[in-house]
Input
Amino acid sequence: MIDLVAVEDEAALAAAAAGLVRTQIQAKPGSLLVVPTGSTPLGMFRALVAEAQSGAIDFGRCRFAVLDEYRGIGGDDRRSLQGWLRRELLAPLDIGPDRVIAFDALADAGMEAAGVERAIAAAGGIDLAILGLGPNGHLGFNEPGSPFDSRTRAIVLTPESIRSNAAYWGSEDAVPRAGFTLGLGTLHAARRLVLLVSGERKRDILARTLDGPVGPHLPATLLRLHPRATVLADRAALG
Ligand code: PGA
Output
């Protein structure tokens, strides 16, 4: 069952998403949060940094896990997704690497994926996973066809994700061909899921996520099987 929260625009989406994080951290200061990269969460990141600076949220005890990562690039590569998160959110919040569960993009694939699953379990599981909606309904690098019970694993990017990721890096050639992602089963085990959706270009995929058939052909429909899932969407996305 999805709790759909409609907001006016991108600014309202950022404020509402930051509000959900604030409520979570007030209820459980040591929460483990998953946050996505992409353009949609950037407003929420700015709102969270402002709230931390004003003292409205105390991130002093919470931990973060990275949703996905490219493989085969160094941590200081400009395309590193954990590097993106560090710049945009974690460094301004003063969250050091000891409080972040992230993929080592250069490590052995199987060992690294299993290590991230173990680290999440050792941290007590994910309290709140904030997700973006891919143009094809993907969650992280869980592309259409990913089983709902899939665990954290190495993946090969589909031509469609290479195309959509090229928007961030300038060209398709600049997009690494392989990556890691938290699995759909791993995300389903989170205590709460929140999907952020903004803009007209997400209108069709959001409508299918909310009302179309549920199944691995559209990974984001996983939210409809979760006991505590929220979709935060702006008017442009809702149509
Ligand atoms: P976006 O990416 O926030 O840049 O739209 C979402 C995604 O592809 O997961």
Remarks:
- Residues 59 and 93 are 7 Å apart (CA to CA).
- Strands lie at 2-7, 32-35, 63-66, 68-70, 100-101, 128-132, 153-156, 178-181, 192-197, 229-234.
- The first helix runs from residue 10 to 27.
- The mean pLDDT is 96.
